[in-house]
Each structure stands twice: as structure tokens, then as C-alpha cells.
Amino acid sequence: MIFTGRGLFSDMPGTIAFHPAEPGMGVIFRRSDLDGAEIRAHPDNIVPDLPNCTALEAGNERVLVVEHVLACLAGLQIDNIVIEVDGEELPGLDGCAGDYLDTLKSAGRTEQDAQVRIRKLRVPIIIGNLEKSLILFPSDEFSISYILDHADPTLGTQFVHNVTKDRFVDDLLPARTFITEDEARQAIKAGFLKHEKRDRAILIGGDGPSKEFLSDNEPACHKAQDIVGDLAIFSHHLIASIIGIKSGHHLNHIAVKRLQMLLP
Fold first, then answer.
1. CATH tag for 118-262 (out of 3.30.1700.10, 1.10.620.20, 2.60.40.1080, 1.10.10.60)
2. 3-class SS of residue 72
3. Which of these, 144, 123, 138, 162, lies nearest to 240 by C-alpha position?
4. Is the overall model pTM greater than 0.70, yes or no?
5. pLDDT-based confidence at residue 52 (cuts at 50, 70, 90)
6. Which CATH architecture has domain 2-107?
7. DSSP state of 97
């Protein structure tokens, strides 16, 4: 199955083709523009300190903005897949996991003759500080909550409470990327955001959002979606209760590394 779109940050056109994978392979990104170079979704392959998104690398090859498709795979409980891309940045539309949902749903899933890799958290993990934190608690099921508290009055304080796996697809996957005008200017200055188009995400300006929110807490839902996508790099079905408080990709990546150490 094939999905086409433009990069959220680069605005470059791109194509994704989804292919079945053998049991135990996990999620593999294949760069068709680089002679089929493969990059596995694994904690060791996370690119450190990259702003605004999650990237994976193997050797000198990278794939950018993987968190949305990984969140979609987690929501649909797809464990093994090859994702073929023809450029460095994965294409998207509104900057959300929902961009890929219809394509993957139409492809369907096949149950494989292999054990699902499950890890249950036994001890709490606390990452961050008094301002921003990500907390993982032992639990009998996976759930996620998020508190967004932003200085911009359009965003303000928002909550996502106790979303379980059976609600991922409906509650989290449609939520779109957002960015304030000031953050966008900084990203353009840094050379990471390479265009000024307003249709790649929700732009928060002095007149409010550039697109109407799907719900009052859509931005908080997107932050929770990012956590789900980033934690999918752990490559196991995690059983834990997660609370994010103003957290972002940096703390998510630390959590993935910590999980790899505690639950190999």
C-alpha cells in the first residue's frame, strides 16, 4: 500500500510504501533512494537532540518524523512491517498519525505465528524536573494521560486523561501537529523548518489557530500521540500507566532508553 504527501518540515514531496515483514523483524524503514538502506526502529538508533521531531539513523542514513507513523502502528497493533520511503523525511498531510491510518487499515493485518513481545513495568520511572516531566507507573494495562500548560493563551492548559489502547485510534491519532508563530520563526532561523506554508500543521498566532481545533484538547492529544509513537521505538508492547506533564520528544527518548535498560 502506498501513501504520498509532502514533508512537514522540508515541504519536499515523498512517498511511503508499506510492505509485510517476517515475524520478529519489527519496524524497518527502507530508503529506496539510497539503494535500499535499512534503519530499524530501535532505541540505539534514535538521533539525539533533534528539535521538534523524532528521527532514526543507521550509519550515515536517517529518516525524520517517524513518530506519527509509529503511533499509528501502535494504535493498530502492527508489530512487523517494512516502511519504504524515497527521501529523508516521511511525508504527511496534517502532521498526525491519522494521515497513515486509512492506508494501513485498507491493507489489513495478518496474524503471524509468533509470540507478541510484551514487557510489564515493575518499578516507576520518573524523568524530568518540576517544570516538565514524564512519569511511568506499573499498571495492569497501558494508559496515557497528558497535561499541556502553554504560555500562549490559545493553548493554555489542556488535559488528556487515561486513554487506553482501545481508544488510541479514535482519541489520539487524528490530533494534528501544532506550532506557535514564534517557534516557527526560530525553527526557520535554525534551518530546520524550510518553508513558511501554513497548511502543514496548526499554526498558533495572535489571531488564534490557523485551523479550527478538532476538539478543545487537540494539542494535548497530539502530545500524547507523540509519546505513544516515540515509545513504540522500544519495540515491545509496554504495560504501564504514563503521565506526561509539558513533556516532549527529548523526555520521550530518555524514557525509551531507560526502558531498554530496565526491560531488555
1. 3.30.1700.10
2. helix
3. 138
4. yes
5. confident
6. 2-Layer Sandwich (3.30)
7. T
